[in-house]
Amino acid sequence: MKILMLTKSLFLEYFRNKIAFFFNILFPLILFILFSLVFFSEGTTNFAYFSDIDLDIYGKSYNNEKKLLSDREKYDAVAVIKDNEVIVYKNSNSAMVDVWIDTLVNRVKSFGLKNVVNIKETKLNYKIFSQRENIYIGTFALSIMSIGMFSVVNLFDRYKRVGTLKRLKLLPMSSFSFVFSFSISQFFISFISLIIIRLIGAFLFSISLNINIFYFSISLISSVLGMLGIGTLISVLFKKSAANVSQFLYIVFIFFSGIYFPLEFLPRFLKNLSFFVPVRYIVDIFKFSMGMQVINISQFFIYSFILIVFGLFLLLIGGKMLFETEKVGG
Fold this sequence. Notes:
Layout: H1 2-16, H2 18-39, E1 47-51, E2 60-62, H3 65-70, E3 77-82, E4 85-90, H4 95-109, E5 119-123, H5 131-162, H6 164-168, H7 175-205, H8 213-237, H9 242-257, H10 268-273, H11 278-289, H12 297-329
Parallel strand pairs: 1-2, 1-3, 4-5
Antiparallel strand pairs: 3-4
Helix pairs in contact: 1-7, 2-5, 5-7, 5-8, 5-9, 5-11, 7-8, 7-12, 8-9, 8-11, 8-12, 9-11, 11-12
């Protein structure tokens, strides 16, 4: 009963904090709407190709066939033109794809290959997302990152400042009960945030993605725990400057997550740094739960497992350190 009451209090207290509500829920939504409206038009179709002849058609030209095939999930259709043969990997049934294929065939035939053109359409077994849908899914991760990371930092900083932790120590409550109640409240807040994002995506941009409830639930649990763990780690390591550090990391995580800025355009050494950004993996597991196979099922469970273990460990150990330290100091 005590845990239930504390969870309810922490949940309601979050929405009374207008600054936290804005930056953790409204701000990611504002970025989603702005980037969707300004940079990407609805219905954009993407193509790419590799050719051993000097072919000039609409789409991104690759110099390496293997690279094209490894990136083919990024496009609505890709084509490999070599050895007097055209192979098309088709991932959309839109009319624009058929028009592009017809244009491609006619262009190749103009090189005198009229009798040896062979189109093989291969329907890929995974979903390709538009740039707007990628931002939409990235907003899920951004909102959870904000809620998880900032809520821990703000909570301990504010509770210490106003003396709430000192009052809590008078209650017959362990640090585990406090951390558990706080974590549950953040799960509810994150769930509400995702519902709001989904409604905005559906009503403003007609985004409707098929969600695997099982994989999505794992993604939600692991990402919330992972970001709560990072927030706890920041609070433990930077007691006096945790808020500033979290704000700096927030900007870094956004830049290297690939949500708004494509990682393909970064220099190699910066691209390698993105592998150390947890939000990147959170975006990947959410994409997987919605049908985009940017990772395989083994990677999905590995990423989720690491986030859960990492988050639980830091929450329990770090939360106890912060809570018990305040007891001693009280």
